[in-house]
Amino acid sequence: MDSKTAVRATTRGAREALEQKMLIDVPLVTHLLTHLRTLSPHRVAAYSPLPTEPGGTALLPALVEEGYEVLLPVTLAGGELQWAVYAPGELAPGAFYDIAEPTGPRLPSTVLSTCDVIIVPALGVDRTGVRLGQGAGYYDRALLHAHHQPRIALVYDNEVHDSLPADPHDQPVHTAVTPSGVVSFPS
How far apart are CA 63 and CA 47, in angstroms? Predict the structure, then answer.
């Protein structure tokens, strides 16, 4: 088993064992909103968290309540993400893992260049900004269209590592938000 696979397996197991997850997600989302206010975004690309992912059920309503236009990914076969504007109550199970996806008109990943901030899922980050995703590369390919936008990973405290394995195609993040606060990385 390679080192990325091992970290993914360990993290997934730890997330599944979390108790009172909502009590952890609320401060994480609060720290995220506080950080976003310093960036003054209008349009935010985010994700629809799976039950074990950071942000949980609090993430999307909080972003909308702040007044942000929120874009969420739509997963296509072949490793491509498209995007659609999130409207509360207008999510449907997607093609992969039943991830909730918006039902509105689809936009290509080039739309990320029009976002002020991009919030990405992660199984871990390291102190240089290396992000460990699920392993299919969807976000790494999509992030190629977002050259200057701040990228924020949502992770739990124990998912910030000193070092993680990285491949040349891995797209870094600038910041991690955890239940304990905000961690910025060198650019």
Answer: 11
Tokens of 99: 């991830």
CATH of the domain at 117: 3.40.50.10420
Is 97 flagged in the annotation as binding?
Answer: no
5 annotated ligand-binding residue? yes
Number of domains in the chain: 1
- Report the pLDDT averaged over residues 153-175: 92
Flag whether 136 is marked binding. Answer: yes
What distances in angstroms separate CA 95 from CA 27, 59, 75, 77, 98, one per listed residue?
Answer: 31, 21, 7, 8, 6
Q: How many CB atoms lie within 10 A of CB 123?
A: 25
The Cβ of residue 179 has, within 10 Å, a number of other Cβ atoms equal to 18
pTM assigned to the model: 0.87
The pLDDT tens digits of the residues spanning 48-78 come to 998 889 998 899 999 999 999 999 999 887 7
Tell me how far the alpha carbon of residue 174 is from its chain's centroid.
12
* 45 among annotated binding-site residues: no
* Confidence bin at 147 (pLDDT 50/70/90): confident
Question: Tokens 């392993």 — which residue?
Answer: 135
117: containing domain: 3-184
15 is in an annotated binding site: no
Residue 21 labelled as part of a binding site: no
Q: Does the annotation place 138 within a ligand binding site?
A: yes
